[in-house]
Amino acid sequence: MGPTIEHAAKSKLLSFSDVFTVLAGEDEKPFLLHGSVICNHSSFFRAACNREFKENAERIIRLPEVEPDAFSMYAQWAYSGEIVVVNGAQTPDETNSEVHCDSLAELYLVGDVLGDTLLRNTVVDRIRKNCSRLKRGPSNTCVNLAYSSTPENSALRRLVVDWHAREVASDWLKSSQNMLPLEFYKDLAIAWAEARLSLNQIADWKNAGQCNYHDHDEEVSACDPLQNDKPSLLPPSTLVPVVEVLSSPQFRLRSPRDRSV
Questions:
Q1: Is residue 222 part of a domain?
Q2: Residue 7 has pLDDT above 70, yes or no
Q3: Is residue 188 part of a domain?
Q4: Is this model's pTM higher than 0.90 or not?
Q5: What pLDDT was estimated at residue 1?
Q6: DSSP annotation string for the chain
Q7: What CATH number corresponds to the domain at position 156?
Q8: Among 68, 110, 158, 181, which has the highest number of CB atoms less than 10 A from its own CB?
Q9: Residue 38: C-alpha distances to residues 14, 69, 174, 252 (Å)
């Protein structure tokens, strides 16, 4: 894998003169953090510390768009290098897999807001691992979060589309038509259409190379090629008949404003 960012437990002694407060969520839950730790992970915090603290004697950063539970998981990650889910068991089973996936998706969004590439990659790896072990896909909430809060072609979007393109049955499409974003259905239809019309094949989300669902930048380089083998593929002949499903009278794509999740 590419280089990892050093966490507090492995780094030098903490500086207790660089602490600042993050107020998370609309209720502004406070988190007291060390700049030497948090800025090591987040491009957002590095910029904020360099810019705002020169003009802000209070040393406070407000993140109203980040839920406190999700930020608590982020702080745990920054200090320990471990993902600790706030809501639900750390190792999900069939009874709590959706709640666990929802929490991981929320954490991915925090990594997106704060510019933490390594965290996003680690979260996607965890979601893939859980989907493979439990033989369950990303939750509907995970899909909705990916499409409401991440940019086009984000790693999380690619993963949820690839999983559904390979694993989902047509009856699921019909039953879930009012629960997921229109843009998701468009991406899913495009994935199927490309595989059928151009004789391409759909990547296997489970066995795909590690880098397939990773982001890389100047801090997080590409993964080891030995861990990024060409993914196994799903033959077009096995694809769900998406055209038949989307054209059926029971199926009507709805815009986000019409949808109730």
A1: no
A2: no
A3: yes
A4: no
A5: 44
A6: -PPPPPPGGGSSPPPTTSEEEEEETTTTEEEEEEHHHHTTT-HHHHHHHHHTTTT-TT-EEEETTS-HHHHHHHHHHHHHS----SSS-SS--TTTHHHHHHHHHHHHHHHHHHT-HHHHHHHHHHHHHHHHHHT----HHHHHHHHHHS-TT-HHHHHHHHHHHHH--HHHHHHTTTTS-HHHHHHHHHHHHHHHHS---EE-TTTS-GGGG----SSSPPPPGGG-PPPPEE-GGGS--HHHHHTSTT-----GGG---
A7: 3.30.710.10
A8: 110
A9: 11, 17, 44, 45
Q: Does the pLDDT of residue 237 top 70, yes or no?
A: no
What tokens does 93 get?
A: 């089973």
Single-letter amino acid, residue 220: V
